[in-house]
Write a structure and sequence with these properties.
monooxygenase activity, mainly alpha, Cyt_P450_sf, 6 helices, 124 residues
Length: 124
Amino acid sequence: LAKYLGNFIDKLSDWPLIYHCYSGNRRLRRLKAHKKYGMRKISRSIIRIGPNTLDFDTATVLTAIHRDRNANVKKGDWYKTIDASAGAYSIQSVIDKHEHTFRRRVLSPAFSESALRDQEQSVD
C-alpha cells in the first residue's frame, strides 16, 4: 500500500475517514484527494484513504471488483461509514452477504420494469 499516494494522516489512522463521514464531506474530500494525488505515476484512479484502504474512482474498477456475486469476498468495515450519518445501513452498505441478499430480494419487485413503468406518471 505504501506506493499509493494520499493524505499523510490517512496513512496513519482510519479516524479521518470516520470524522469526514460524520461531518458529511467525505465525498468532497475524496474528490480533492483524487485530484491532488491521483495524477501521479502509479494510477490516477487509485488513492490511499486509510492504513489498509484504497479508493478507486472509475466504474471499470468497480465492475472488476464486484463482477462475481458468488465470490468469497467480504466487504470491508469502511462500508459501515457510508450511511453512518443517516443512522441506518442501506442495501449498499450492509456487509453481511445474507442480509444483503435478503434486502435485495425484498426490494427487487419494486424495481422491476413493470413496477417502474407504473410509477412513471408519479415522477413526471
